[in-house]
Amino acid sequence: MRCLFRRSSPALIGIVLFALAAHSTARAEGWKWELVPYLWASDVRLDVALDRVDVAPVEVGFGDLVEKLDLGALVHFEGSKGKYGFFVDASYFELSDDQTIAGRPAIEDGTTVDTALEQLMLELGGKYRLPWDARALDLLFGVRLFDVSVEIDLDPPLAPDASVDRDRSLVDAFVGLRYGAQFADRWSWSVRADAGTGDTDLSWHAAANVGVALGEKRKNSLHVGYRHIQFEAEDDGPGITETELSYSGLMLGYRFVF
Predict the structure, then answer these.
(1) Running DSSP on this structure, what letter comes out for residue 185?
(2) Domain residue spans in the chain?
(3) Is 141 helix (H, G, I), strand (E, B) or coil?
(4) Which letter does DSSP use for residue 216 in this model?
(5) For residue range 19-77, what is the model confidence (pLDDT) as tens digits?
(6) Which of 164, 200, 219, 227 could lock onto 207 through a cystine, CB 3.0 to 4.6 A?
(7) Among 14-23, 31-40, 193-202, which is the least confidently predicted range?
């Protein structure tokens, strides 16, 4: 499981280093840069079916997530010049949970399910300011990576080989829209929705936030909002494993503009 963190660390560190390098060239090249480290008070739901039998319906509220979360890191970086731009968003979670479930077909009553989950979500995308609204409507497009490691053990076991230990990288292409505008002197809002497919059967993402500009120059801003990401995927062997994973909850981020 730790290998996923070692693979994701360069991506997270690279975003920060690129943002620092971009700061020195922003004025000369005419680019606008944004760096947003953020917190995500997310509920997590994981559903895993092994050979069509639900073995791990795990739902963790944010209060429990703080206790079960072993590690988390989230950052968004964006650059724009004129109508064009790009963005990178990376979020890493590592958590574990154990619970006793009621009996169901093929599973004994009182079975203990131990679940360990690591996931890196990485978005690499471009944006284009649409002409219908020159102020705020962006077409978003790109690729989204889900690097997922799931370990599930049942006690007593469903079968000698019924444990799930999968490490998968899923890449989807996505397309969507983002709209934002100011509604007061210091206040702004934005909404985003997109959907994708590829290695997953379906992935989709929706978010909304409200921000307030701070300081005399009103350059940087504090944002609060809500975000939901979900994907569904199927793995054919050994055994058919169906996975549905979703994150949803409030976000709090600080936007640095330079």
Answers:
(1) S
(2) 2-257
(3) strand
(4) S
(5) 555 555 555 478 899 999 998 887 777 776 655 555 555 555 445 554 555 456 789 99
(6) 227
(7) 14-23
Cβ proximity of 181 and 153 under 8 Å: no
* CATH number listed for the domain at residues 2-257: 2.40.128
C-alpha–C-alpha distance, residues 233 and 170, integer Å: 9
Q: Give the residue carrying structure tokens 């409200």.
A: 210
- Dist. CA 131–CA 98, nearest whole Å: 51
Amino acid at 143: V
What gap in Å lies between CA 194 and CA 155, rounded to an integer?
A: 39
Percent of the chain whose predicted confidence (pLDDT) is above 70: 60
Whether cis (ω within 30° of 0) applies to the bond prior to 156 is yes
- Predicted local confidence at residue 59, as pLDDT: 55
* pTM, to two decimals: 0.75
CA 207 to chain centre: 11
Structure tokens at 182: 């100011």
pLDDT(258) > 70 = yes
Q: What is the CA radius of gyration of the chain?
A: 20
Using alpha carbons, select from 74, 170, 90, 84 the residue that is nearest to residue 124: 90
Contacts of 146 (CB under 8 A, 6+ apart): 119, 120, 121, 168, 169, 170, 171, 172, 199, 200, 203, 231, 233, 245
Burial of 217 from C-beta contacts in 10 A (0-12 / 13-18 / 19+): exposed
